[in-house]
Design a protein that fits this description.
The chain is built from 10 helices and 37 strands. The chain is globular and about 75 Å long. The chain has about 650 residues and is an alpha+beta fold. Among the domains are: about 15-120 and about 300-465, Immunoglobulin-like; about 475-570, Immunoglobulin-like; about 585-650, Immunoglobulin-like, CATH 2.60.40. About 50% of the residues are buried. Helix 2 runs parallel beside helix 5. The strands form 10 sheets. Strands 3, 4, 6, 7, 25, 26, 28, 29 and 30 form a 9-stranded mixed beta sheet that branches. A 5-stranded mixed beta sheet has the order 32-37-36-34-35, with no helix packed on it. Strands 9-8-10-13 form a 4-stranded parallel beta sheet, with helices on both faces.
Length: about 650
């Protein structure tokens, strides 16, 4: 059963009440570990920590990153100080759950990490719908085009939709649903740019204030493709802000909790109605998009550390700042998670992550600052989390949560982290914010502790859901040239120097709007490549550099944003390859005694080739009864190619 929203008020005077004899702190609900990995003589990930006499037991559970359930739990005496995971396969990503039972009525701990041994590069993160406020279509044409190009360059297949501020939320959702159901590979993320009409839903006050009970803003309405959202039962007009009042038939929905899991990981960038800022919303959005491009291309960077400014403390066990410590330990490490004053510290030093909480209003957080402060003080951070009364209602005028993204050096992301808790540990393994958004918004049991409001419609994410922790500078000078009577294409580019680059991958599509597929089948050591089987007509190419990132929990292969070039009038020898992905393969991953099946339309004479992640050809031949009659022995990442199209698949 989900917890009700009749909960404690977030008044700042609770800080004094939390000074109990035990002197518990928010950091008590998380736990740092020193994690290493080695390849010889046995692949393993090693967890080390300082033994604590207050530990009764410590338990470890593991699952593959995309799995929906945890594997077996192994429980040990609280006296141990290390754990070795010997069941590690190269190329995969694992999530770890560490549960610590403490003695003497001290709070228990749940800590999460994500990583692996040389986890595979993500050549595609999936499809993203970009919902754009048409107000900005002309004044920010260049910035919006750069945004869409950067998303494509960072392994997303992008589908922009322009909408007006006067359209109904129901109409906009139908546009999203229609596009979602038409896609061959279903979209997995949604980026909302500008003041796209804001849905409201529920009869909630997750900050505990009676005058704030009613409908709250929720882009999860757009992100939930198949849930049943109704507008016929809630009748509540007690809220002091008119937008929160909710009556039947008013266009605001009834649901306080999600009616079903969200299919899209949604994020919003919206600077409308921030009067404390002297610049217009158009100028603020332009500023954000310009800095976003600089961050993604390695022109600006931040030291990997977490700043924590906690003005609530333990708060009767809710310990809102546990979000800072748990995610800080997982994303940047225990030694790099530090306490300090939010505005003073970030004005002078740079942090990749930050967290601030305190008794709030729509425009402030006690002990932190105000919306006006964000306008006046340039801060140096990329990802922030905030918590306090009222400002979780992010559509209000001069809202404190949105203001964190609007400043001169504003953060790129923010969320109301405390009711419920958020889980960003997958970012340390190279995954985008979109993965953490889905894990947090759809969470009702998988991750804990949950805190009040879990699975609620108010768990909004502000910012670009494609963002990752690790970027580096892009390649340069990609050129394409037709050779052998226009039957092949030679690509050349300048080497990406000074970034510990190990190699490159080459991708291809029939247009910049289409999905790109890897055609190089493993890293290329040099700075040139010949496409021996190009598409008939126009070919658009993308080149990304690859390097190995050392993370908190292992290592993973990471790509920079791609660079592009195109060439037309190509006439490959023999039968022209299909110009689109007319076939698909399922499931995307198999185990022993399973096969990859084929669907869609492809000629019976289609010749399929299966490569491993290093580009070695393992099998080639024809499909048999709509399946690939070959199972590789080793677990890992593979590439299946036919008709000029390549699909990435896995075996466990």
């Amino acid at each position: 059963m989900r917890l009700p929203f009749s909960i404690a008020l977030l008044f700042s005077f609770f800080i004094a009440m939390n000074g109990s004899a035990i002197a518990q702190q928010a950091s008590d609900l998380a736990f740092p570990m020193h994690i290493t990995y080695s390849a010889a003589p046995t692949k393993k990930i090693v967890f080390n920590w300082t033994a604590d006499t207050n530990f009764a037991t410590i338990s470890f559970s593991k699952k593959l990153m995309n799995a929906s359930t945890w594997g077996p739990t192994n429980t040990y005496s609280g006296t141990i100080s290390n754990f070795n995971d010997l069941a590690v396969q190269k190329g995969l990503r694992y999530e770890y759950r560490i549960q610590i039972q403490r003695k003497h009525s001290l709070p228990n701990v749940e800590q999460y990490f994500c990583g692996g041994f040389e986890s595979a590069n993500q050549s595609s993160f999936g499809e993203m719908i970009v919902l754009i406020d048409s107000t900005y279509a002309i004044p920010l044409q260049n910035e919006l085009q750069q945004l869409l190009l950067d998303l494509t360059a960072d392994a997303w297949w992008v589908h922009p939709i322009y909408v007006s501020r006067t359209q109904s939320v129901a109409n906009i959702k139908s546009l999203i649903q229609n596009l979602y159901h038409k896609r061959h590979d279903l979209p997995s993320a949604l980026l909302i740019v500008g003041h796209v009409p804001v849905p409201y839903s529920g009869d909630i006050n997750p900050d505990g204030h009676p005058d704030h009970q009613g409908a709250w803003p929720t882009d999860l309405f757009y992100a939930d493709i198949d849930g049943n959202w109704t507008d016929n039962s809630v009748n509540n007009t007690v809220a002091s802000r008119a937008e929160n009042q909710n009556i039947p038939g008013d266009g605001k929905y009834d649901q306080s909790n999600l009616p079903s899991d969200v299919e899209l990981s949604a994020g919003r960038i919206d600077f409308y109605n921030l009067p404390s800022f002297s610049s217009s919303d158009t100028s603020l959005l332009q500023q954000y998009l310009t800095r976003l491009h600089q961050f993604k291309t390695g022109l600006i960077s931040y030291r990997k550390r977490m700043l924590v400014d906690d003005n609530f403390g333990y708060f009767n066990g809710e310990a809102f700042a546990q979000n800072a410590y748990r995610n800080g330990y997982a994303c940047v490490g225990g030694d790099s998670t530090r306490n300090g004053d939010y505005f003073t510290t970030l004005a002078a030093q740079d942090y990749l992550w930050s967290y601030a909480c305190g008794g709030g209003s729509y425009t402030s957080a006690a002990g932190i600052g105000t919306t006006q402060d964000f306008s006046n003080v340039p801060l140096n951070h990329a990802f922030t989390m905030s918590f306090g009364s009222y400002f979780g209602d992010w559509d209000a005028s001069d809202n404190f949560l949105r203001a964190a993204l609007a400043g001169p050096n504003g953060a790129f992301t923010n969320c109301w982290a405390g009711r419920p808790n958020w889980y960003f540990h997958t970012l340390s393994a190279g995954m985008p914010m979109a993965t953490a958004i889905a894990n947090s918004q759809n969470n009702s049991a998988l991750y804990g502790p949950l805190n009040y409001g879990y699975y609620g419609i108010h768990t909004e994410f502000l910012g670009d859901p494609s963002l990752r922790q690790d970027y580096f500078s892009v390649c340069q000078n990609l050129s394409s040239q037709a050779i052998y009577n226009n039957s092949r294409v030679q690509l050349n580019w300048s080497a990406n120097l000074g970034n510990n680059v190990l190699g490159y991958e080459v991708l291809r599509a029939k247009s910049i709007q289409d999905s790109f597929y890897v055609i190089s089948h493993g890293m290329i050591g040099g700075s040139n490549f010949i496409d021996s089987f190009p598409l008939l007509g126009t070919n658009v190419y993308q080149v990304r550099a690859i390097r190995l990132e050392q993370s908190i929990c292992g290592s993973y292969y990471n790509h920079c944003l791609g660079i592009f070039d195109s060439i037309a009038n190509i006439t490959p020898n023999g039968i022209a390859p299909l110009a689109n992905a007319a076939w698909s393969v399922y499931p995307s991953s198999i185990t022993d005694n399973e096969y990859w099946n084929l669907s869609g339309s492809y000629p019976a004479s289609s010749h399929f080739k299966l490569y491993d992640e290093t580009g070695v050809l393992l099998w080639n031949g024809n499909a048999e009864t709509n399946r690939i009659p070959f199972i590789p022995k080793r677990a890992g990442v593979y590439f299946l190619e036919a008709n000029g199209v390549t699909k990435k698949i896995m075996k466990f």
